[in-house]
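Appendix B, example 12.
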Amino acid sequence: MTRQIRLNAFDMNCVVHQSPGLWTHPACRADTYNTLEYWTGLARTLERGKFDAIFLADVLGIYDVYQHAPRAALEGAVQVPVNDPMMLVPAMAMVTEHLGFGVTATLSYEHPYPFARRMSTLDHLTRGRIGWNIVTGYLNSAAKGMGMARQQGHDTRYEIAEDYMQVVYKLWEGSWEDGAVLRDRTTGRFADPDRIHRVAHDGPYFQLSAIHLAEPSPQRTPVLFQAGASTRGRQFAADHAECVFINGPSKQVIAPIVADIRRRAAAAGRDPRAITIFTMMTVITDTTPEAARDKYAEYRAYASEQGGLTLMSGWTGIDFAALPPDQPIRYGDHDAMTSALEAFTIADPSRSWTPREIGAHAAIGGRSPVIVGSPTEVADALQAWVDETDVDGFNLAYVVTPGTFVDFVDLVVPELQRRGAFKTDYAPGTLREKLTGPGHARLPESHPAARVRPGG
């Protein structure tokens, strides 16, 4: 039986997301990121293509590791300016019926009490189509912007995340019982106070005594994405995540990560197949192989390798400008995104990378592989990735927007559908139900969040 592929569009509320320099291409509209028209138009395109969700990246702070300054990021608009992703969701939800929204939010810099309300609000407004990509941050510039001298250590950030999750689980799942909302116009009773509970939490990092401010939303807890592929990040994903987003330049890097996450999930008592794993991919396609390759060559002329190194320096915590350009890089202990460094060093012993090669690679598609070809070639390649790495689907990054997404929807989606490798229509229900099946709007009893439910 042909395995169906899951697809998210990967975007960010900024000019340059994963392909620095390409915003200057005549066909690219990335610099209109600050208009509702861009986002509503993209949402309509993605729903036409039956995408599962738009996955919105975010980062607090500026990429100032490269040359120890923000100049390159500011000049090239490398993920700065960057606006709030959550503000986009209601507008896109208004023009769609099924498209899901995975929103990145860094838990290191916001107390869980107001954050839980914000996510409940989005779940209400989207009628249950919201997901949260849980990240802990990786830029010291973000920590400094929040009044700290530097960010916490990598593993400490995950300890904070564990405590954070307990708080939001209690707010979403344990504060309002099922049936607490009455909406009784005759008696004037909106809610039953006896079925609404004050959350008490006294953890190592967070303390709380409060009633959740929002009434229960369709999913209560949003669909939980997680985007950390370090060893500690994988364990966190195995314990909490429903969907995991990983990254790497080759199948040799990705396949062991997928296997490890599924193994850890099983060890945690969860069904390893219940975790949907996405890897990032960039696709350049056209009606013929030759036209696709010509398009790729044209895009290369606009790509910024310095921008690629600016991104990679921020992701890894290494100033690539200070390294010999043609000397292979080595793995070291850094407190940024450790999985980014592992992917280009120790994850694939058969391949070494120099700063020059990393800059060229990251200039189109960031850390992702790039597939160039006709719809048939692209579909072959995507199915091979699923077969050989055991990923469930892809977060598709753009080179030019919305063109990259339009090309995929018009050319590749029909080919995947013809093969039975992609859905021809949406399933009903919430985002969680669309991903896991009807009747599963809420997290299952096997998830740790269920332990804080009344009577759990």
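The first strand starts at residue 6 and ends at 12. The chain is about 35% helix and 15% strand.
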